């Protein structure tokens, strides 16, 4: 019972961080959708129509980004080009 509650709390924390990151990207002028996905929400997915190798490289230079993601239990980060009608 306690483990299930802890797992649920961790999922909530990952969802909250995804929302916080999306808001931070919007504040910087980036229209990036950020989601916590997967069975236990342990994959952080960034979706952006302008996703590129250069963006991934710039993001990799932000150590605090990865530290924050790891601290709440994200195990994988995906960056994908978003191609939807807005």
Word description of this protein:
The protein has helices at residues 2-27, 53-60, 63-71; strands at residues 33-37, 43-47, 76-80. The mean pLDDT is 92. The protein has one domain (2-80). It is built from three helices and three strands, in the order αββααβ. A three-stranded mixed β-sheet has the order 1-2-3. The protein is an alpha+beta fold.
Summary of the model, kept short:
This protein is α+β, with helices and mostly antiparallel strands and 86 residues long. The chain contains 3 helices and 3 strands.
Helical percentage: 40-55%
Which segments are poorly predicted (pLDDT under 50) over 5 or more consecutive residues?
A: none
Helix segment count? Answer: 3
Any idea what the shape is?
A: elongated
Widest β-sheet, arrangement of strands: 1-2-3
Structural class: alpha+beta
Radius of gyration using CA atoms only: 14 Å
Instruction: Name the beta content range.
Output: 15-25%
How many structural domains does the protein architecture include? 1
N-to-C SSE string, H for helix and E for strand: HEEHHE
- Overall pLDDT, averaged? 92
């Amino acid at each position: 019972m306690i483990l299930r509650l802890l797992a649920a709390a961790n999922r909530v924390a990952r969802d909250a961080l995804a929302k916080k990151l999306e808001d931070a990207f919007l504040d910087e002028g980036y229209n990036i959708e950020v989601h916590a996905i997967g069975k236990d929400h342990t994959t952080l997915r960034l979706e952006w129509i302008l996703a590129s190798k250069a963006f991934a490289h710039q993001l990799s230079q932000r150590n605090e980004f990865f530290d924050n993601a790891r601290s709440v239990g994200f195990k994988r980060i995906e960056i994908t080009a978003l191609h939807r009608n807005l």
